[in-house]
Structure formats: structure tokens, C-alpha cells
Design goal:
The structure holds 2 protein chains of 2 kinds.
Chain A (H helix, E strand, L loop, with lengths): L1 E6 L5 E7 L4 E7 L2 H6 L9 H19 L6 E9 L3 H18 L3 E5 H13 L6 E6 L4 E8 L2 E7 L5 H11 L6 H9 L24 H12 L12 H30 L3 E5 L6 H14 L2 E3 L3 H4 L9 H7 L15
Parallel strand pairs in A: 1-4, 4-5, 6-9, 9-10
Antiparallel strand pairs in A: 1-2, 2-3, 6-7, 7-8
Helix pairs in contact in A: 2-3, 5-6, 5-7, 5-8, 6-8, 8-9
Chain B lengths: L1 E6 L2 H14 L4 E6 L6 H11 L16 E4 L5 E5 L6 H6 L2 H5 L4 E5 L12 E8 L5 E8 L1 H9 L5
Parallel strand pairs in B: 2-5, 2-6, 4-5
Antiparallel strand pairs in B: 1-7, 3-4, 6-7
Helix pairs in contact in B: 1-2
Classes of the chains: A alpha/beta, B alpha/beta.
Chain lengths: 336, 156
């Protein structure tokens, strides 16, 4: 049985074909990353118009790579929340259109639940119940995942997401774009103990994050009381030390809060999704923490961590339960 | 018309934001400018509190997600233009519809998309004058915003 899924919640236009096992047959993302880099970290066009232009070719490509026909598809799935309403609507409208034209059921899935489900997809076995962490440019949140479709928010960021902090601190340090990889490269030669940056809430029992103060701390370390910020960005060893110390602070907080979530829920599994998990220091820290806690750590391959449509294979679970969406389906900007 | 407010610490900034939020009216547009770490998101949360948001913790940075919506006395539309290339990309988000939706638009990094902003608005520039001290430079254009500035009381 073949499923087609669409993703248009933020920057990426994506489509995927998978079976009801679920097994991925194709996973196509119209990445705009090259454009982002060319425009020096600024997104040239992320609006609905780009999705509109990309979506049909991306669907065609997903069908072609899967080696199937559109008429073989038995169910169409779409991420309808959370995200940018105008962007989500492109995917939702296209999915409705396909549902009507092909006379197949429509299933709506939550983008964040899909990020956790990517771990289940990659593991090819049950991973629930588990603690879920989604850590990306737009999100930093911990979930108690009872099963694939039942998740409760344990806590999220109070201000900036971790990926956003990486991007903005990379900009403060005068590094390139995308900021995450650039900062990680810079941190390799740095001393993570050189600067003592704040680790917000790290000694508190709440499962919340705050990275805005950390960003500001990096700023003040560089510019001091020079509020005009006329100082040129740091360079050489000092810049590497700043990058390494910043990265260590983010990693320490994420690992500490995951550990706390494992302890508070008593769940011995941690499933991680989102682009920030590409960071090697974060991976190592989570691996070490999970080992100490006797917990199992699930991290999917990167093409399932960053925004994609294959992770919407979560739709198979809804399809099995007969939880179909009607043509009244709307885009929802907020989580749940 | 312009006014300056010198806010010596975080508590003063939060009180200022709450007072401003309390005075906002349907279709109000607030442009927020200032460097990284100036506290635009923090001020947005205080304004949302003044608008009676039930869950102020929900107010987070929209840098990546571009638009957040929060229910309150008036619906709050929280934008961030940091990642946008310019006014056209901002218009592509459908902002013109949000301006007229009966809620309140808070726009971080508004100076990057100035040509896409309505002429009538309140522009707040956050200046960092100390580690926690901020100076708010307010510019009101349009009758409703001049009234708003008057109701906000004397600056410095």
C-alpha cells in the first residue's frame, strides 16, 4: 500500500512516498540552502509562492524516484501544523486536491510529532513510549511521547530556539551561513572552558530552555560596556574559544534537560529530531548521558532530521486507526 | 511625534511593555527595531502581557518560524523580519491581511522591511545603554498612534 506525503510548514518544500510498513521509497526536498548561502544568510523567498512553484515538481520527483504511478497511491498525508499558515496552506490545499482527484483518504499530521516519528522510521522497530526532543532553528522542545500519536509537551524554549542561537551567535562572531555548521567548524580549534557562559535553568527542576541570555552574554563578552558595538568581530584563537564555549553551554543545557526528562518521566528512551542534532558535540554529549542513565538514544540519519516529508509516515498510524481528515482541514500555526 | 523612555532595568522595561499593551487598539502596528540582544522578544512578551495573553510563556522568538499568533484581548500577530531579504518577502507572507485582521501586529527587525509597513504605526527603537538598561525611542505616525503616545504619559 502506497502513501504520498507533503511538507510545506516553513522553508522547505518536500514530498515523499512510503509504504504502510512503513518503508520509505522516496524522500525529496527542494532545498533552498544554496540560495540561503548565496544571499549571506538571508532567505530570499520563503513565502507561499516558493512552495507553490516547487510543490508539483517535487511531488512528480517523489513519485518518479519511488518508481510508482500517482494512481497507485492509496492515501495522501500532509503536515498541517505547526508552522506558517500561508506556507502550510499550500501543502494542505494540494493534499485536498489529490484526495479529491484520486478519491483517496486524507490524513493530517503534526510536524513535531513527525520529527519524533522519524526515529521510529529509522529504527524500524517500536520506540514508544519515549522522551522526545525536537531541536531546530524554530523549535526546542521536550515531549512525553506515550505512543506515536499521543504526545504531551514537557517544556520548550522561553525565547530563542537552540538553532536560532547558533545562527545569531555565528553572525555575532562574523562567521558564515548556515551559522550552525560554521560555528561548529570554528569551535573545533577552541577551548570550551575558555569562557564561562550562562546555562539557563540548568539547576532548576523545570524542563524549559532559554538561549537569549546566552546570546547576550556572548555579545557582552566581545563588546564589554562598549554599547555602540563598534568593536570588530573577534578573530583567531579568541574566536574559536568563544565558539567552543558557546557551543558547550548549549550542549550542556540540552543534555541536562534531556537527562532530567528521562529521570522525571522514568522513560528509558530518548528520541531526537531537528537539524541541530547534526552538531557532533551535542550527539556525543547525548550519547554519554544516555549511557550513564541506562537509556536508549535514537537519532535518525540527517535527511530524516531536517524538515522532510518522509517522517510524515506517522500518517500510517492514523490511517490504521481510521483517523482521516475531511476537506474542511485547515492549517494551524500553533502546536496541537 | 517622538518620545524617549529611559528604562533602567528589566523590571522597568517589562512594566513599560505591559502599559503599552494595555493601551493598544484593533489593527495596531508596532515596529520594533534594535540590535541583537536588545530585548525585542522580551518587550514583545511584556506587550502581550499588557494585552492579557493567558500564557505569556508562549511568546518566543519568531526568527525562524516568521509569524506567531497568540490569543489575547486582541489577537497578537508576532512577526520577525530578521531572515527576510526585504519588503517583498514580507509582503509575500500576506502581512497586509494581518494588518487589517483586527488584532495587534508586533514586528521585530521592522527596519529590514520598512517599505512593507503601514505609514500609520508606532515605531520603537531599543537602544542598549547598559547591561540591563534600555532607552526606548518612540515615533508615532497617524492620529491613533499620536493619541497612544499621549496616553502612554510623559517620556524623558
Amino acid at each position: 500500500m502506497l502513501f504520498l506525503a507533503l511538507e510545506t510548514s516553513c522553508d522547505e518544500t518536500a514530498a515523499a512516498v512510503f509504504t504502510d510498513e512503513p518503508r520509505i521509497l522516496s524522500n525529496v526536498v527542494a532545498s533552498q540552502n544554496e540560495l540561503h548561502a548565496r544571499f549571506h544568510g538571508v532567505v530570499p523567498e520563503i513565502a507561499a509562492r516558493a512552495h507553490l512553484r516547487n510543490l508539483l515538481p517535487v511531488i512528480d520527483e517523489a513519485i518518479r524516484q519511488a518508481g510508482v504511478q500517482l494512481s497507485d497511491i492509496v492515501c495522501v498525508a500532509v503536515h498541517n501544523c505547526p508552522g506558517l499558515v500561508g506556507a502550510l496552506l499550500i501543502g494542505v490545499s494540494a493534499a485536498k486536491m489529490l484526495s479529491v482527484a484520486l478519491e483517496i483518504p486524507l490524513v493530517a499530521v503534526n510536524h513535531l510529532a513527525s520529527h519524533i516519528y522519524a526515529c521510529r522510521l529509522a529504527a524500524e522497530r517500536d520506540i514508544f513510549p519515549c522522551v522526545g526532543l525536537v531541536v531546530s532553528g524554530g523549535h526546542t522542545a521536550l515531549f512525553h511521547c506515550e505512543d506515536a500519536l499521543t504526545m504531551k509537551l514537557l517544556g520548550g524554549t522561553r525565547d530563542d530556539a537552540a538553532g536560532e542561537a547558533f545562527d545569531k551567535v555565528a553572525s555575532i562572531l562574523g562567521l558564515g551561513f548556515p551559522g550552525g555548521p560554521a560555528l561548529e567548524r570554528e569551535a573545533v580549534a577552541g577551548n570550551p572552558q575558555a569562557y564561562k557562559f550562562p546555562r539557563s535553568f540548568v539547576n532548576e527542576p523545570r524542563l524549559e530552555f532559554s538561549f537569549s541570555g546566552l546570546k547576550t552574554a556572548v555579545l557582552y563578552t566581545i563588546h564589554g560596556q562598549n554599547v555602540a558595538r563598534s568593536q570588530t568581530p573577534p578573530s583567531g584563537q579568541n574566536r574559536s574559544d568563544l565558539a567552543a564555549s558557546f557551543q558547550q553551554a548549549v550542549v550542556d543545557v540540552l543534555a541536562a534537560k534531556c537527562k532530567l526528562a528521562i529521570q522525571q518521566t522514568g522513560l528509558k528512551r530518548l528520541a531526537v529530531g531537528g537539524g541541530v542534532i547534526a552538531n557532533k558535540a551535542l550527539r556525543s554529549a547525548l550519547e554519554a548521558m544516555a549511557q550513564r542513565e541506562g537509556a536508549e538514544l535514537f537519532i535518525p540519519p540527517m535527511n530524516l532530521c531536517t524538515d522532510n516529508a518522509a517522517m510524515a509516515a506517522l500518517a500510517v498510524e492514523k490511517w490504521r486507526r481510521g483517523e482521516f481528515a475531511t476537506l474542511e482541514l485547515d492549517a494551524e500555526p500553533n502546536f496541537l | 511625534m517622538t518620545a524617549n523612555f529611559d528604562l533602567e532595568n528589566l523590571a522597568a522595561t517589562e512594566a513599560f511593555g505591559r502599559r503599552l499593551g494595555d493601551l493598544l487598539f484593533p489593527n495596531a502596528v508596532i515596529a520594533l527595531n534594535g540590535p541583537l540582544g536588545a530585548g525585542k522578544t522580551h518587550l514583545s512578551r511584556a506587550i502581550a502581557e499588557g494585552l492579557g495573553i493567558a500564557n505569556p510563556v508562549a511568546v518566543t522568538s519568531p526568527t525562524f518560524t516568521l509569524i506567531h499568533e497568540y490569543p489575547a484581548r486582541l489577537s497578537i500577530f508576532h512577526f520577525d523580519a530578521y531572515r527576510l531579504s526585504g519588503p517583498d518577502a514580507f509582503l509575500d507572507l500576506g502581512v497586509n491581511e494581518y494588518y487589517e485582521a483586527g488584532g495587534v501586529c508586533l514586528i521585530e527587525w521592522a527596519d529590514r522591511v520598512e517599505a512593507a509597513l503601514p505609514a500609520d504605526r508606532l515605531t520603537i527603537r531599543l537602544e542598549v545603554v547598559g547591561e540591563n538598561a534600555r532607552r526606548m525611542n518612540l515615533i508615532a505616525v497617524g492620529e491613533r498612534y499620536l493619541m497612544l503616545l499621549q496616553n502612554l504619559g510623559p517620556g524623558v
